[in-house]
Specification:
The complex is a heterodimer of chains A (412) and B (238). By secondary structure, chain A is of the alpha+beta class. Helices cover 56% and strands 21% of the residues of chain A. In chain A, the strands form two sheets. Chain A has a six-stranded mixed barrel, surrounded by four helices. In chain A, strands 12-13 form a two-stranded antiparallel ribbon. In chain A, helix 12 packs parallel to helix 15 (373-399). The two termini of chain A are 30 Å apart. Helix content of chain B is 34%, strand content 27%. In chain B, helix 3 (105-116) crosses helix 4 (121-134), helix 3 (105-116) packs parallel to helix 5 (150-161) and helix 4 (121-134) crosses helix 5. The longest helix of chain B has 18 residues, at 180-197. The chains are: A alpha+beta (412), B alpha/beta (238).
Chain lengths: 412, 238
C-alpha cells in the first residue's frame, strides 16, 4: 500500500459522518441515474420492439424513376438530380425483389403487403381503417403478428379467406369480438363482409386502432389494385443497421425504402428527449453530491493543515499530499458507485413491479424497464468524473500549502 | 572545527514578508556542522533561529547563499528533489512535537519510512519498535499519540526524526514545551543518538543548560551569527 493511500484511509476513518454524507450523495445520484435511464429506455425499447414487430424493421414501397430534365439549367438552391424523381404507386417485380432481398445477411424474412384506406362498420359504428392484405405464412415470418393475438386464432384467419384480424382498440370501438362480423366499404362503394378471426394487440396505439389484416388476394380485389403489393416489410437480424440497408435497397431496387428509425423519427425524438431530460435532472443530483464532496474535502484540507505541514517536513512531496485527497475522492467514488449500482438495480427491479395503466401510444400494465450495463457504466463514469473534479481542487490546495507558514505560526 | 562536515551553509540571506512589512531575517549566515557534533543556535526571539533551521531543512528557500548536505549542493534543487533529500537525510524535531494525533506512536515513527519505501511493512514495524524502545517507549507502541504525555510525545518525535537514519537532525526548541526533568531526559536521548550514530545536530534553544551542553554555541542576533564558541569557552549570555 502506498503511503498516500495509507494516510487517506486513516484520514477518512476520522471523519466518518462527513464521509458518510458524501457517500450517500454519490450512492443516490448513481442509483437514481440508473433507475431513470432504465425506465425511460424501457418505454422507448418497448415502443421500438412493438413497432418493428408489427410494421417491420424496414419497408420498401413505391417505385421511382429519375426525372430527366433535358438541358434545362437547374434552378439555384436545388440539391441535385437525386431529389428529382417520378414515383409510381406499388411495388413491381415483388417476387424478384424478395428473392434478391433474402440474399442479404441482415434480412431474416420479408413479406409483401397490399395496403389501402377503407372504412369499417359493425352495428352502428364506423371507423376509417388501414387494410393490410397479407400472405399469412410470410407475415408470420416477418412480423410478431402471431404473438400479438389476444383473442381468436391465427389459424382461423389463415384457413378462411373472408376472415380478418383487427386491432384490439378497433375491436373495442366497433364493439366486436372474435367470431363476430365486420363490414369493409370498398372504394367502389360495396360492403364486403369479413369474420373477425382474431384480435391483435401490437402495443402501438395507432396500429391497434387502425389496422385490419385481410388475405392479400381478397384485399387486391377489394381495393381494386392492379399490383400485388404496395410494400414489402422486412425483419432484420440487426435492426439498428436498417438505415444503411434501406439506403442500399433504394439504390438497388429503385423503390422508396424506409427504415423504422425514419418511420418513427417523431416518436423516437420524444423518447430521446425524455431520456436526455431525465439524465440531465439526475446528473444535477450527482453534481450536488460533487459539491458536497468538494466541501467535505475542502474542510478536510483545512482541518489537516498541521498534518500536511508535518508530512511535508518528513519529506512528503506535493504530489503525495494531493494524492492523499485524491485517494479519499477515489474511495468515495468507488464505494459510492458500487453501492449506487446495487441500489440502482434494486430500484429498477422495484419500479418494474409498479402497476401503471397506459393505453395511449403504448399498451402496458406496469412500468417498463431495460436492463442495460451501459446505464451502470455511464452512471459510474459520471460519478467518478464529478468526484475527481470535486477532489482535485482541494487536493491542489493541500499540495500548495506552505509548511513553513504552518510550522512557524502553530503552537497547537 | 575538524572532522567530516555533514551540513554546511554559506552566506544565507532570507527576506520574509512583502514590501513595507519585509524583514531581513537572515543576513549572510555561514555554518559548518560535523558528523557526531551538537550545535546550538541561541539568541532572542525573532533573531532568525527558526528561519535558519527551516532553510537548512529544505522547507524554505534562501534568497541567496548555498547549502551543502552530505557533500551535495542542495540549494537549487527542484521541490521534488528537496523533498526526497529531506526524507532521506534530515530529521526534524519541533517544539510542539507535531505528531499526527490520531495515529499511534508506532504509526508516527513509520511515516517517514513509508515515504522512503525501502522497507517492507513488517520491517518498518520492527524498526519503529526498536526506535521507540531506544527512547523508553517500547511499551506504548500502539497508543495514540494524543494519549501520551508531553515528554513522551517529544520522545516519539525524536524517534520519528531518526526513522530513516538521517545524517542531519534539526531541532527547533525541542525542549521548549517540556518541564525540566523531561527536557533533560529528551536532550540526553538526543545526545546519545548524535554521538553514537555520528549525526550532525543543530538545535535552536532558549535553554542555557542545554545550549551549554552542546559542542558548539552559535549566538544569533538580527539575522546574523554574531559569535560561535566551543563548549565551555563562553560566558553565559542568558
Amino acid at each position: 500500500m502506498t503511503a498516500p493511500l495509507y494516510i487517506a484511509l486513516r484520514f477518512a476513518t476520522h471523519r466518518k459522518r462527513a464521509l458518510l454524507l458524501s457517500l450517500v450523495g454519490v450512492v443516490f445520484g448513481v442509483a437514481i441515474f440508473i433507475c431513470t435511464q432504465a425506465q425511460t429506455q424501457g418505454f422507448a425499447q418497448y415502443f421500438i420492439n412493438s413497432t418493428i414487430g408489427s410494421s417491420g424493421a424496414m419497408v420498401l414501397r413505391t417505385k421511382f424513376q429519375p426525372r430527366y430534365e433535358g438541358l434545362a439549367v437547374a434552378a439555384k438552391n436545388t440539391t441535385g438530380a437525386t431529389n428529382r424523381r417520378n414515383y409510381f404507386e406499388g411495388v413491381s417485380n415483388v417476387s424478384e425483389i424478395m428473392r434478391v432481398s433474402r440474399q442479404f445477411s441482415n434480412v431474416v424474412a420479408c413479406a409483401p403487403v397490399l395496403r389501402g384506406n377503407v372504412s369499417a362498420r359493425a352495428g352502428f359504428e364506423n371507423a376509417s381503417v388501414e387494410i393490410y392484405g397479407i400472405d399469412p405464412a410470410a407475415q408470420l415470418k416477418a412480423t410478431d403478428l402471431a404473438t400479438q393475438i389476444i383473442a381468436g386464432k391465427f389459424d382461423d384467419f389463415s384457413n378462411n379467406t373472408s376472415a380478418a384480424i383487427i386491432g384490439y382498440k378497433l375491436a373495442d370501438f366497433l364493439n366486436v369480438g372474435a367470431g363476430d362480423a365486420i363490414q369493409i366499404l370498398s372504394p367502389g362503394g360495396e360492403y364486403w363482409r369479413f369474420t373477425v378471426a382474431a384480435i391483435a394487440r401490437s402495443g402501438v396505439g395507432t396500429v391497434d386502432l387502425n389496422r385490419v389484416y385481410a388475405h392479400a388476394r381478397v384485399a387486391q380485389r377489394l381495393l381494386k389494385k392492379p399490383y400485388q403489393a404496395s410494400m414489402i416489410i422486412y425483419k432484420l437480424r440487426d435492426p439498428s443497421r436498417a438505415p444503411e440497408l434501406a439506403s442500399h435497397f433504394e439504390e438497388l431496387f429503385q423503390h422508396r425504402t424506409e427504415s423504422w428509425q425514419e418511420r418513427e423519427e417523431g416518436n423516437l425524438q420524444i423518447f430521446f428527449t425524455l431520456r436526455v431530460s431525465a439524465a440531465i435532472t439526475v446528473s444535477l443530483i450527482i453534481l450536488l453530491a460533487g459539491f458536497g464532496i468538494f466541501n467535505v474535502l475542502t474542510m478536510s484540507v483545512l482541518s489537516k493543515v498541521r498534518e500536511i505541514a508535518i508530512l511535508r517536513s518528513m519529506g512528503y512531496r506535493r504530489i503525495d499530499i494531493s494524492s492523499i485527497f485524491l485517494w479519499q475522492g477515489a474511495l468515495i467514488a468507488s464505494v459510492g458507485s458500487l453501492l449506487g449500482c446495487v441500489l440502482g438495480a434494486v430500484l429498477t427491479w422495484g419500479i418494474s413491479k409498479v402497476p401503471i395503466h397506459i393505453r395511449g401510444l403504448l399498451y402496458t400494465n406496469h412500468f417498463l424497464v431495460v436492463w442495460d450495463w451501459r446505464h451502470y457504466f455511464w452512471a459510474t463514469l459520471l460519478a467518478v468524473v464529478a468526484v475527481f473534479i470535486a477532489s482535485y481542487v482541494p487536493s491542489q490546495r493541500a499540495a500548495h500549502l506552505q509548511p513553513v507558514d504552518t510550522l512557524r505560526g502553530s503552537s497547537l | 572545527m575538524n572532522g567530516e562536515v555533514s551540513l554546511s551553509c554559506r552566506d544565507l540571506e532570507r527576506y520574509l514578508g512583502k514590501e513595507e512589512e519585509r524583514v531581513h531575517a537572515l543576513r549572510g549566515v555561514s555554518l559548518d556542522i560535523q558528523a557526531g557534533s551538537l550545535h546550538a543556535a541561541v539568541g532572542p526571539s525573532g533573531c532568525g533561529k527558526s528561519t535558519l533551521l527551516y532553510i537548512l531543512g529544505l522547507l524554505d528557500r534562501p534568497d541567496a547563499g548555498a547549502i551543502v548536505i552530505a557533500s551535495e549542493n542542495v540549494s537549487d534543487l527542484p521541490d521534488q528533489e528537496r523533498s526526497r533529500r529531506r526524507n532521506e537525510l534530515i530529521g526534524f524535531i519541533f517544539q510542539f512535537h507535531f505528531l499526527m494525533e490520531d495515529f499511534t506512536a508506532e504509526e508516527n515513527v513509520m511515516m517517514p519510512m513509508r515515504r522512503l519505501g525501502r522497507l517492507r511493512e513488517s520491517e518498518m514495524r520492527e524498526r519503529a519498535a526498536a526506535l521507540l524502545h531506544d527512547v523508553d517507549l517500547g511499551d506504548k507502541l500502539r497508543r495514540e499519540s494524543r494519549h501520551l504525555s508531553g515528554g513522551e510525545q517529544q520522545r516519539v518525535a525524536i524517534a520519528r526524526a531518526l526513522a530513516n537514519d538521517p545524517q542531519v537532525i534539526l531541532a527547533d526548541e525541542p525542549t521548549g514545551n517540556l518541564d525540566t526533568a523531561n527536557s533533560e531526559r529528551a536532550f540526553e536521548v538526543l545526545q546519545n543518538i548524535v554521538q553514537k550514530g555520528r549525526k550532525a545536530l543543530l538545535l535552536a534553544t532558549h535553554n542555557p543548560v542545554i545550549a551549554e551542553s552542546c559542542d558548539w554555541i552559535h549566538e544569533m542576533k538580527d539575522g546574523r551569527i554574531t559569535a560561535s564558541h566551543p563548549r565551555g569557552t563562553r560566558n553565559s549570555v542568558f
